[in-house]
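Table S4 entry, 1-aminocyclopropane-1-carboxylate synthase.
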Amino acid sequence: MAEIRGNKVSFNSNNLILTAGATSANETLMFCLANPGEAFLLPTPYYPGFDRDLKWRTGVEIVPIQCTSSNGFRITESALEEAYQQAQNRNLEVKGVLVTNPSNPLGISLSRHELNLLLSFIAAKGIHLISDEIYSGTVFNSKGFVSIMEVLMNKKYVNSPVWDRVHMVYSLSKDLGLPGFRVGAIYSNDKMVVDAATKMSSFGLVSSQTQYLLSAMLSDKKFTKNYVIENRKRLKQRHAMLIRGLKNAGIPCLESNAGLFCWVDMGHLLSSKTFEAEMELWKKIVYQVGLNISPGSSCHCVEPGWFRMCFANMSEQTLDLAMQRIKSFADSISDSNNISRNQQHSNKNSRRKSFSKWIFRLSFHDRETER
């Protein structure tokens, strides 16, 4: 964890609790920090699985922090305050904020300004902050990644009330490509949370065999260092390949620097600016084009037309074929839209001509009547 964060942060192993993946870690934190009927604030768009992980068994409510494309889906002070007020209007007690850094589905890491904003917000409200950092090792460009723990130390929050209210989730699923091993972790400076989460981890243990194997793997410093470097290199190359293919198809996307996916804007391909049209387009892409992408509405995006497109789980040949299919599909929709616009224009001209003839006949009839 320290190495992936550039050794800018040190961790105390006594504050670490192993869980059966990040899913179990997030749910355990919900059980520790909130009661049924209380709320956590989450910036949109967010990982669709949080509706399951955070709510199903805990009874916790999710209140969205509405982020929009106008500022690249960045978290703002006004959006935080509006979400907090919305929760109060619903008579929900807010227990904290949960963010993913880097973001799933946006593929962007939170800026230092956003992290400082979040710390100031939870300090003012007396609530918790959970930073899910399972994509921290997938940052592939120079913008880099800043962990909430780094900001927490730099802001001199050590041993303050805020120090105990910031918790981190981590996993080996993304950084080492081991989702099937189900190895996640909670890191917290709060002894009560550590004690409670340790007891609850009995319901989601990591097997002894898995721990033994991973212990041997992670002890090979040369392997792990080379793996992370090579992984970032390949992600950067594959990301660039996707961006070129989308650009060639006339499809823009959010500028990203991390993750295994891109946040793609297909709003211009919608039949109308509605979520119904978004689902209609998604079904065409799945059933006609043969590509499985995620519609923005499943991530609670407030703007129709955005989609999450994964690029790291396939070969270059498969990705190249996918881009060819997307381009053909986008071109066909553009052609049909042009034909439709031309027909509408032609119909308008026909109506104008018919209307002119009708006016002429009417005026001629009036003159004959006057005679």
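The chain has a mean pLDDT of 88.
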